[in-house]
Amino acid sequence: MEKKPTNQNKKNPLPLENEWVIKLVEAARETVKGYEDYLLDKQTYSQLAEIMKKLRELLPDGCKDEKKKKKH
């Protein structure tokens, strides 16, 4: 009888992608929290903008280019 391979022995084929997703989710959480604080007047618009810039930096390049396209 042949043994089937278990998933326990498999290595994650995309560790960097998973790391990116974790960072993206954390940045999204921080952005939502920052926006809530902004709405409650606990943060200024410039503080919120800094948080949002961090989130934007994690987005794929195609998403970043949309801002440039809208200007033209």
List the helices and strands and how they pair.
Elements: H1 15-39, H2 45-58, H3 61-71
Describe it:
The chain is mainly alpha-helical and 72 residues long. The protein has a domain at 15-58. It has three helices and no strands. It has helices spanning 15-39, 45-58, 61-71. α1 packs antiparallel against α2 (45-58). The longest helix has 25 residues, at 15-39. The chain is flat. The relative contact order is 0.10. The model has no long low-confidence stretch (mean pLDDT 82).
Summarize the structure.
By secondary structure, the protein is mainly α. The chain is 69% helix and 0% strand.
Key structural traits:
72 residues, 0% strand, mainly alpha, 69% helix
Mean pLDDT: 82
| Helix-strand topology string | HHH
Largest sheet: none
Structural class: mainly alpha
Tell me the strand percentage band: under 5%
- Helix tally? 3
